[in-house]
Amino acid sequence: MADVDVLKITNLGKSYPGVQALKGVNLSFRKGEVHGLIGENGAGKSTLIKILAGVVKSDTGEVFVGGQSVEIKNSEDASQAGLCFIHQELNLVDYFNVMENIFLGHKYPHKIIPLIDWKVLKRKAEEILEQLQVKIPLKAPVSYLSAVDRAMVAIARGFAVSGEIYFMDEPATALTDIEKEKLFTVIENLKNQGKTVVYVSHNLDDVLRITDRITVMRDGTVVDCWPTGKMTRDSLISSMIGRNLESAFPGKNSNPGQIVFKAKGINNKHIHNINMEVHAGEILGIGGLVGSGRTELLELIFGVTSLTSGHMLLDEKDYKPASPKAAINKGIVLVPEERRKQGLVLDRSIYENISLMSLNHLAMTGFLDHKKLKKESEEAGRNVRLKTSNYSNHAGTLSGGNQQKVVFAKTVLKPPRMLMLDEPSKGVDVGARFEIYSIIRELAASGTAIIIVSSDFNEILGLADKILFIKEGKQTFIIKNNNMDQERYLNYCYGRAK
């Protein structure tokens, strides 16, 4: 069954002004397989998917479904060809409820046109959520949902219409480990039904675990396609970036100095009796499972939420920020998990985004010094290895990795006293990830105190000098990161010393 090509692409090409996004791509997907599609940001994966989804039109090439040539001009053509898509960007309507979002963009069943048959719609929505093994109130506005539940609604929308080939673009990025396992079970069930799943992800461990074959793209071309069993994490990385990546993390170079930040028995609704200190040039990792209170701890320090008891000290002086602005004025900066919603203004220029936190510095006379803004923004961009041809472009036009670099550039334009990072490499490819790690190390070497939260165990183990573990908002251990492995790390996350 898995030897039959259900989708074949020949000589696919697409160019934009100054950019050749796809160059003669030849690729095939077999019936009943899970096919991994990987590559750095800008490799051409998203352009390929947009062409197959009918969002953009290719310049050259042909698409065959079931051996028949098809022309995909819009999403309806794609749906009729049996292609279903779960896109990386959730694109949910906040004031619509769960049921309405699941069927967004699909034809609603009608009793009598134009009256929608809500009973049929409800039954179908319940069937989809049951298939995904999740329970979400169908009438709840999605604006009220957690990030995990919003991601599951977006995934559910991909199953609103039955198809033969399912394209999943970073579907597990916002999921907990439990939700991810449910998704993997669904993928396995689709495979057993003879469906084809194309799984796009930067998480190479997931790709190696669930796929049958893996295609690697680089610079708009296909460079490798092999059975998964013949590939390793190292070989995938080498194929993606075109060179050997000797180490996933830059060498440690921090030399901790004086104490920058200290917390004594801090508490609020989510955080209970945390004691911690971070030195200049030190990287403190916050260990714990999703939902353990890691992000809530950063938000408390950043002034998003209020302290109810305990004390915080910054450079040995009382620190109790009333707002994030107050924290920033004191030199404490947070790079948030959701960069597109919380870290960037996507429809404004790269210049404007980089300068957002430094406007007072750039307007010393009361008027914004645009010449100084552009000069210092470009210098900050170079310092974080930002790849762009024009800083006047909107931030939303950049790849995920370069968007994250803009957020970093914004924080280093005026170097912070302490930098807090929440999932700094989320949705970022391995090449850009190494560059981001290098930036973090360089900031630490310059004397910045750093706190990092990450769901990637290796990220904490590879970067942190010491790790503070929390469970259910409570501190459990503080451990120096000396040769700690994943098994020990996970035991500490569960509150078990080993």
Description:
With about 500 residues, the protein is an alpha/beta fold. About 35% of the residues lie in helices and about 25% in strands. The chain has two domains: about 5-240, 3-Layer(aba) Sandwich (Rossmann fold), CATH 3.40.50.300; about 260-495, Rossmann fold (3-Layer(aba) Sandwich). The protein has helices at about 45-50, 75-80, 100, 120-130, 145-155, 175-190, 205-210, 235-240, 295-300, 325-330, 340-345, 350-355, 360, 370-385, 400-410, 430-445, 455-465, 485-495, and strands spanning about 5-15, 20-30, 35-40, 60-65, 70, 85, 110, 115, 165-170, 195-200, 215-220, 220-225, 260-265, 275-280, 285, 310-315, 315-320, 330-335, 420, 450-455, 465-470, 475-480. Helix 14 (about 370-385) crosses helix 15 and helix 15 (about 400-410) packs parallel to helix 16 (about 430-445).
Helical residue percent band:
25-40%
**What is the number of helices?**
18
- CATH fold name of the largest domain: Rossmann fold
**CATH H-level superfamily of the largest domain:** P-loop containing nucleotide triphosphate hydrolases
Q: How much of the sequence is in beta strands?
A: 25-35%
Query: Which ranges are low-confidence, i.e. pLDDT below 50, for 5 or more consecutive residues?
Result: none
DSSP strand tally: 22
Sheet with most strands: strand arrangement: 6-9-10-3-11-12
Q: What's the number of structural domains? A: 2
| CATH class category of the largest domain | Alpha Beta
CATH structural architecture of the largest domain: 3-Layer(aba) Sandwich
Q: Biggest sheet, in brief?
A: 6 strands, mixed
